[in-house]
Amino acid sequence: MKKVSYQGVPGAYSESAARKFFGEEIATFGIFTFKDALRSAVPEESPTDVNHCILPVENSIEGTVGQSIDEIVKTNLHAIGEVYLKVEHCLIGRGKLGDVTKVYSHPQALGQCSDFIEDHDMRTVPTYDTAGSVEIIKDLEDNCAAIASSLASNLNDIPIIKEGIANNSNNFTRFLIFSRDKVAETGNDKTSIIFSVKHEPGALHHILKEFYDKDINLTKIESRPNKNTNWEYNFFVDFLGHSENSKIKSVLDNIGKNTIFLKIIGSYPIAELD
Fold this sequence. Notes:
Blueprint: E1 2-7, H1 13-22, E2 26-31, H2 34-39, E3 52-59, E4 63-64, H3 66-72, E5 78-86, E6 90-92, E7 102-105, H4 107-112, H5 114-119, E8 123-126, H6 130-137, E9 144-148, H7 150-156, E10 160-163, E11 172-179, E12 189-196, H8 203-213, E13 218-225, E14 233-240, H9 246-256, E15 261-269
Parallel strand pairs: 1-2, 1-3, 7-8, 7-9
Antiparallel strand pairs: 3-4, 3-11, 5-11, 6-9, 6-10, 12-14, 12-15, 13-14
């Protein structure tokens, strides 16, 4: 049986995404932080026998999940898959809608429901996890509510006050699945990398030109602050193709010669958005 760690508690969207990717016949383990969720799948760093980890990396409304990306830079695990999960936020609590003055949830969820929150003049309280916020309000007054999934409502036996409260109903989160082992090329793959370049004119252009010259399609590029050096940045890039493909290998070899560092996060089959 596959054993999968995720950040959060039972009922978290990450747990639902894991079951969508692997199926229901898995064991899931909620971990408090993104860092420890990844570490739980590394034999040298954890006593558990977890063999996969799933992390959210970007949302269609709020963008990149920065905490995940910052931890992915440091892990030795390989991305072996991706999955998209439709996110359907609910307001959960024991009071009526008009009673709620304070709402708890993860910052990403609070941002995704900002219109609803502002329209109802609610004060936000950021928490570490959507499903965890439902646990938090269990012992609070009826003026407190949480934003999370219907599954979190069911698991905690706290009713849904209102469904469908996100700013945009077309709300999806993309997750990456990590493992100790790589996966083979399928012919319909995507590769994720992180790199940094010298702080000089044209440095990034030279890297991107490698993809252009080899007719490789970039599907994402984003900069993230380098945590070790102020005002320098790492670039997170997704592109079509597998790192074991000869053309992709050639590009990665050339990129490696012109970067300060290059990390291949992993190559994996492209997921369908459904």
